[in-house]
Amino acid sequence: MDEFSFINAIKQATYKQPTLIKGIGDDAAVFRQSSKDIVTAVDTFVEDVHFSRKTMKPFHIGYRALAANISDIAAMGALPVFYLVSIVIPSHWTEDELSQIYSGMHSLAKTHMIDLIGGDTVSGRELSISITVIGYASRGKARYRSAADEGDMVFVTGTLGDSQAGYHILMNAGHFINKGYYYKRHQMPNPRVAFALELEKLQRVALNDISDGIANEAAEIAEASGVSITLNYNKLPTSDMFNQFTKDQQRNWSLFGGEDFELIGTIPKRDWQFVKQAAQRTKTKVTEIGYVDLSKRFVYLQEENKRTPLDKKGYMHFK
Asked: Which of 64, 91, 232, 294 has minimal CB crowding within 10 Å?
């Protein structure tokens, strides 16, 4: 299949977003938006760095790559509407495998009503996928890491460490409980778009998505806001069968495990009831896990009666 045939194969037959004027077929896409703030995010995924065929089928690679970008848009309090895909294709990847990568993306895009509006395809030595997602936020309502303040409470959606648990199960033989659940949490994460949008009425929210571990993401909020964050280890939410793993694994995965794509946030205490209602409306688990104060820009871990500094660890690309 040549490049043009490939583009025609992945092109949508119809588009869902009314603000799109011109999609795939010209040198660039065109959309018109005058009433919202436009939010964009881009991520690049490289074979054997960000994904492996040992743990994922091509469908899962496409699905999770798009999910990671949608999660960034959710963390900004925005609604994802369009995405573009640039892909470097090595010769050992078959036409059917590439089709399955895009099928994974299309599956998640259909759930969120997002349109594929462009991208690029080139040949190269290793599979690399770069995705740009465009979203809309109500004017002045995009959410920033710099919005945390003294006295805020810290919350998190979902459960932590599941993606790393899934990766561990996929890579290691043995008897494990709820394999399917952990596989899905690793291969097909669920970006918290609906929940984040429900927080639009709140005056102040700091949000970050948990792509590199909650210790790392909490540190980013603390640094951007000029505050300190204390996380209560005993309150960190984990899945029902998480105790089948060793104590060290549970600790490392819940604190430093990446790719859960949940949201960590801070809000004034008075808004906690509203957040719980938003979670109920969107069927999202939400848990209070800590607090904000105005000491040094740092993250602390509270365990029993001890409060100790928590290292900014997790996945770091250049480490």
From this structure: 91
The pLDDT mean for the chain works out to 93
Q: Which two tokens stand for residue 139?
A: 């004017």
Summarize the chain as % helix, strand, coil (round to 5): 35, 25, 35
Which positions of the chain have pLDDT values less than 70?
1-4, 6-8, 314-319
DSSP class of residue 146 equals G
CA dihedral (214, 215, 219, 220) positive or negative: negative
The answer as to whether 83 is a domain residue is yes
Contact 119, 79 (CB under 8 A): no
Give the residue ranges of DSSP H helices in the chain: 3-10, 58-75, 95-112, 162-171, 179-187, 193-198, 214-225, 247-256, 272-281
What is the per-residue pLDDT for 3? 62
Where is the domain boundary, 106, 138, 170? Answer: 138
Task: Look at residues 85, 39, 37, 93 and name the one whose alpha carbon lies nearest to residue 63.
Answer: 85
Q: Are 232 and 290 in contact (CB under 8 A)?
A: yes
Each residue of 229-269: pLDDT tens digit? 999 999 999 999 999 999 999 999 999 998 999 999 999 99
Q: Does one domain contain both 153 and 115? A: no
